[in-house]
Amino acid sequence: MGSEKKKLTTSWGAPVGDNQNSVTAGSRGPTLIQDVHLLEKLAHFNRERIPERIVHAKGAGAHGYFEVTNDLTKYTKASFLSEVGKQTPLFVRFSTVAGELGSADTVRDPRGFAVKFYTEDGNYDLVGNNTPVFFIRDAIKFPDFIHTQKRDPKTHLKNPTAVWDFWSLSPESLHQVTILMSDRGIPATYRHMHGFGSHTFKWVNAEGEAVWIKYHFKTEQGIKNLDPKVAVQIAGENPDYHIEDLYNSIEKGDYPKWKLYVQIMPLEDANTYRFDPFDVTKVWSQKDYPLIEVGQMVLNRNPENYFAEVEQATFSPGTLVPGIDVSPDKMLQGRLFAYHDAHRYRVGTNHQMLPINRPRTEVNHYQRDGAMRFDQNGGDSVNYEPNSFDGPTETPENKAHQYVVSGVAASVAYDHDDHYTQAGDLYRLLSEAERSRLVANIAAAMEGVSKEEILLRQIQHFYKADPEYGQRVAQALNLPIPE
């Protein structure tokens, strides 16, 4: 008889009933803060390393500005988008995801694409990647996913078995895996890649009318990628290649530029669209919701001090301004907690006061004390609200836009489980040469996987996306083609 399976428990020993789905109000959400297992996982995960970022540890930053080129005030009241020609200062941080501070820039990895807009209504952070989708769609799986991308607890080496075991058991990852293993998995530079908000967000106009939106930053330098062999060579010869390239281009006046576009979806379409528009493993077809130009981002100034500006910069998708709100996207809902919490731990509870993070507008609140409080700490002003001493008060016109929720509070998945159509569509969009490189990259990445059942399970996912896709990967690995 085999040994009895161990029960998964919380840190206080209680058995866990569902480790795949966070507790939400209905299948679409939002996520409920009563899910103490989710909060415990995310809070513990944020405290696993000292002091570098858990993910996106290594990166490069630059200052610049955003200029509005199209009037979209009928969709959003966000002040920095209020008129054509308006410029807003910003700071951008690009990064790799899985490596440590000393890792090489030219590895196959998604790239972080985080933008902090210093608007007159406070800071607005758009914290995305260079891909329009992600590997998972529920934040409860994020600590587990990143563990597979980091170092093995026994060998302290990267572990392809863990990587592909997780992906093969999480079919929602297939779309992002296909992008990662394609030519775009290794950008030539930070300047030669697109950026995406990835999640669905909400825009609200001055009349209180709302739409769902997705952000797309399109590089004006053009897309360029690295051949894997060249990337390996550069990783050995100049592991800081991307940081150096961005710095040098700005120093010589060759300022990188991106055009920002949005896709706009009417609120009611979310209930009928053929994919769940809040599932971050899916894209919206640009035929259904075409790109609409918003403005241009220009990077024109390097940091004076890397630690003070790049390392201490803190971004969170929960750093919002009036006119921009969140959606019920379960991955986004988890990030709203996890990012601010990570910064409180890594940089400190007063991280928003540091010059790189400080808003360019007046800040009035009742938060006091905390480590490294280096201003007047509110002086002798009242530190509670409501009060009778003319302290700052709320502005009801800036309440978050409401939306209807329904259903039973339970750990449930998204209603839609088609993880193959969009990955297959992407595969079929590739040229023959691109498909060959994709398959070769996958086969190379699977070298060292210790269990054949993991390889076969993953090949089945490729096959379901497109039979040719699965057949070619199986042939590259000398494994049987799925029936």
TrEMBL record:
InterPro entries: Catalase (IPR018028), Catalase_3 (IPR040333), Catalase_AS (IPR024708), Catalase_clade1/3 (IPR024711), Catalase_core (IPR011614), Catalase_haem_BS (IPR002226), Catalase_immune_responsive (IPR010582), Catalase_sf (IPR020835). Its EC number is 1.11.1.6. It catalyses: 2 H2O2 = O2 + 2 H2O. GO terms for biological process: hydrogen peroxide catabolic process; response to hydrogen peroxide. The active site is at H56, N129. Residues 9-393 form the Catalase core domain. SMART domains: Catalase. The keyword ATP-binding does not apply. It comes from Seinonella peptonophila. GO terms for cellular component: cytoplasm. SUPFAM superfamilies: Heme-dependent catalase-like (SSF56634). PROSITE patterns: CATALASE_1, CATALASE_2, CATALASE_3. One of its GO terms (molecular function) is catalase activity. Its cofactor is heme. Belongs to the catalase family. This is Catalase.
